[in-house]
Design a protein that fits this description.
- The protein is mainly beta and 513 residues long.
- The chain has a domain of 298 residues: YVTN repeat-like/Quinoprotein amine dehydrogenase (Methylamine Dehydrogenase, Chain H, 7 Propeller), CATH 2.130.10.
- The chain contains 6 helices and 30 strands.
- Strands 3-30-29-28 form a 4-stranded antiparallel beta sheet, with no helix packed on it. The protein has a 4-stranded antiparallel beta sheet with strand order 4-5-6-7, with no helix packed on it.
- One of its GO terms (cellular component) is Prp19 complex.
- Belongs to the WD repeat PRL1/PRL2 family.
């Protein structure tokens, strides 16, 4: 039952609640501590106005106030630049004059206008610096002095250099500024890559490819719903795995266990035991096609990305979904992992790249520089940098904050895949079958390849969906739309004389975005 109270009791209870609510006014500022305020203002004065503390001061005002220190409420010592020097400027007001005609000029009748503090300061800045002050404040010989001492006229300076003389507040600085525009450094020479093997066997587009850590074999996934394992040295088929009911979009081999992971457009993520060639785990959770996956290099964690606009982090052993990385507004096309922070990088059809905090499961940085879908991301094996590929251009970034480095422009196509090796060769593969090879450091495009499609295929079936270097980085494997895997190697006969770099030290005109 509800206990009834008198109106008198209720009113007083309400008053008490109101009083308790407002008795502690948290918005009220704390009382000012004089000592700490003085210290704060003294520091602020020195840091913000230290460069102009040597400016002329009104001597009348100083005399009236009884010395230089009494005018400073914060107990400031005189600025060290003025010690041992008498200030040369005296800014006074007008001469005394009578208030009207016919009035005798006495101490009682005189009128004298004194300049305001701000007017005195502005006048002091406008006054030319005298030679004695310049000599006293000079810290080093100017460039002009050096030339004059050497008997050379100041105008006969080295070509391409300009001397800027700055006089401000009585200080004289000389700065040598090179007029030469920045140019692209000469790129490192890389031998050209040539096609030496075409492997057939799949009955549909080859969508993904991965090389096992021991470099003995590689694995491919295809639109024919199969996963095939091939011998790397001979190119012979070793094994076919069936189980997916739609296109296989991603494969990766674990370096920590004898497992192969695959994902596909059937929303499935599978873990295959390569000792028994059977699926031993399924990872359920994605609501749409799974477009890519990657394994963390140091912990047993699998990351997948999907058309449902999320990436998911899975515990490999327990099959549990550790985090769902949400934030992208369109399909997530690619995901990469690394041991250093940020541990997860995703690229999406919403044109953004996100760097994720693995522990918190939240976005650290969102990069919005691309104008079109980001379908490919690759991490440099040695440098703390990465690249992203989009139809507008390829961009290079610095970890951990995603600072922009440079654009690699010229591959005007839908870029499906990127790969990079330790020598700094970046490969971009496109939807139209073209493959460009770049020097990572300078962004120079040193080779362009467009391999012929397999006989019997349509010209429209010219497309590169994935590419990867083998573990020795001497072979480049591409997964293509003509149902083949193409293997490239460096041309051993090529030299810098037979294949010179057609490079000119042109002026850099890099867009920042």
């Amino acid at each position: 039952e509800v206990q009834k109270h008198s109106v008198h009791t209720l009113v007083f209870r309400s008053l008490k609640r109101t009083h308790d609510m407002f008795v502690a006014d948290n918005a009220k500022p704390i009382p000012l501590d004089e000592e700490s305020h003085k210290v704060k203002m003294a520091v602020k004065l020195r840091t913000e106005y230290g460069s102009v503390l040597h400016m002329p001061t009104l001597k009348e005002n100083l005399r009236e106030k009884g010395g230089p220190n009494t005018g400073d409420p914060y107990g400031h010592k005189p600025y060290s630049g003025n010690q041992g020097q008498e200030l040369e400027y005296l800014i006074t007001g007008t001469h005394p004059y009578p208030p009207g005609p016919g009035v005798a000029l006495t101490a009682d009748t005189k009128v004298q206008r004194m300049p305001s503090e701000s007017a005195a300061q502005s006048l002091a800045v406008a006054l030319p610096a005298s030679q004695s002050r310049l000599d006293a404040n000079r810290t080093a010989a100017g460039v002009g002095d050096i030339y004059r001492h050497a008997g050379i006229s100041e105008r006969s300076q080295p070509p391409g250099m300009s001397v800027a003389m700055v006089e401000a507040g009585g200080n004289k600085n000389s700065a040598l500024m090179a007029k030469k525009a920045p140019t692209m450094p000469k790129p490192q020479w890389h031998p050209p890559w040539k096609l030496y093997r075409v492997i057939s066997g799949h009955l549909g587009w080859v969508r993904c490819i991965a090389v096992e850590p021991g470099n003995q074999w590689f694995v491919t996934g295809s639109a024919d719903r199969t996963i095939k394992i091939w011998d790397l040295a001979s190119g012979k088929l070793k094994l076919s795995l069936t189980g997916h009911i739609s296109t296989v979009r991603g494969v990766i081999v674990s370096a920590r266990s004898p497992y192969l992971f695959s994902c596909g457009e059937d929303k499935q993520v599978k873990c295959w035991d390569l000792e028994y060639n059977k699926v031993i785990r399924h990872y359920h959770g994605h609501l749409s096609a799974v477009y890519g996956l990657d394994l963390h290099p140091t912990i047993d964690v699998l990351v997948t990305c999907s058309r449902d606009s999320t990436a998911r982090i899975w515990d490999v052993r327990t099959k549990a979904s550790v985090h769902t990385l949400s934030g992208h507004t369109n399909a997530v096309a690619t995901v990469k992992c690394q041991a250093a922070e940020p541990q997860i990088i995703t690229g999406s059809h919403d044109t953004t790249i996100r760097l994720w905090d693995l522990v918190a499961g939240k976005t650290r940085v969102t990069l919005t520089n691309h104008k079109k879908s980001v379908r490919a991301v690759v991490l440099h094996p040695r440098h703390y940098t990465f690249a992203s590929g989009s139809p507008d251009n390829i961009k290079q970034w610095k970890f951990p904050d995603g600072n922009f480095i440079q654009n690699l422009s010229g591959h005007n196509a839908i870029i499906n895949t990127l790969a990079v090796n330790s020598d700094g060769v970046l490969v971009s593969g496109a939807d139209n079958g073209t493959m460009h090879l770049w020097d990572w450091r300078t962004g120079y495009n040193f080779q362009r390849v467009h391999a012929a499609v397999q006989p019997g295929s349509l010209d429209s079936e010219s497309g590169i969906f994935a590419c990867v270097f083998d573990q020795s980085e001497s072979r480049l494997l591409t997964a293509e739309a003509d149902k083949t895997i193409k293997v490239y190697k460096e041309d051993d006969t090529a030299t810098e004389e037979t294949h010179p770099v057609s490079w000119k030290p042109e002026i850099i005109k890099r867009k920042r975005f």
